[in-house]
What does this fold into?
Amino acid sequence: MKNYSQIYTLFLMFVFCTSCKGQGKTDLPKDNTKSETKDVITSTVPNNITRNIIQDRKGNIWIAAFDGIFRYDGKSFSNITSKVSSARFFSLLEDRKGNFWFGSIGSGVYYYDGKSFRNYTTKEGLPDNSVTCIYEDKTGNIWFATGGGASRYDGKSFRNYRMNKGLPNNHNDNGVNSIIEDKTGKLWFGTGGNACVYNGKTFTILTHNGKPFTNVRSIIEDKKGNIWLGGKDGLWRYDGSTFNNLTENFVGHVYEDKKGKIWTSSETAQGWVLFSYDKKSLSNKNPPATAINPKEGKMIFGILEANDGSIWFGALNGVYRYDGSTITDFKGKQVKVNKFSNNVYSPIF
It folds into this structure.
């Protein structure tokens, strides 16, 4: 039986807070150095831990991996950061202006406008140099989930939100894993400690039956306004008044595709599995799920539905694409997969 908690220690997964408070702003220095670079087209694909994947407005696939930021144009991969940084990249975002943000483990965040890079670290105001999630809110502020709390960047300065210490075993409970803004404007923070909701003035610990949600790795809001939480305690759906637990399996990532299907990555007794919950059955208390065991993917991280309907996901050893019947690893190997009902897979917890 695998022990995900030991493995995730390598990725600097952080624990969160029991309460939160904003810190002062830090202005950026005007002489922050920019470095020029040219894209290097290469047949090399991500070979290391691949954490997150997005598709830009032009249709390119962007991949955050421990061996660089890769861009796939449908034909070949470019390692965009190979001549700029050897950082282990973890998160990425294309903002509303078409600029990119790349979060790393230990090297802060990199801003890329398509021509040059700019690196922001604790020297410029970040609370920590490990950035596991990047999110843009409705007003255009960029939020960073870091090992030292959340940080909001308004284009000029950072405003940091730190949490009080208080968890046992000397855990760092300032770490944030996931940030979203819901349709009402409230911000949700998935954390290694207690998950929080922020209404712009105060933070509230998220609880169910008096018990806080802890070690939440992924939060999304679906098209209907339901909030989904994935983490140590499995997969939860919140409809605004009631919490419903769909599985007790550990869930590392939650994603909604264009048709309203919910995808998750989970660890089971049979290994790491992609689960998909059909939109038509999501109103059920315990909806059935289709399970896909990539076998080759080992641990499964970020999930993306590309414009062509294929599902991309990251793993310990690179990036994979699933077209509904075949998984491609971009290293010359394709694997036919079988789909199973979720009752085939047993939880490991």
Remarks:
- The chain has a mean pLDDT of 83.
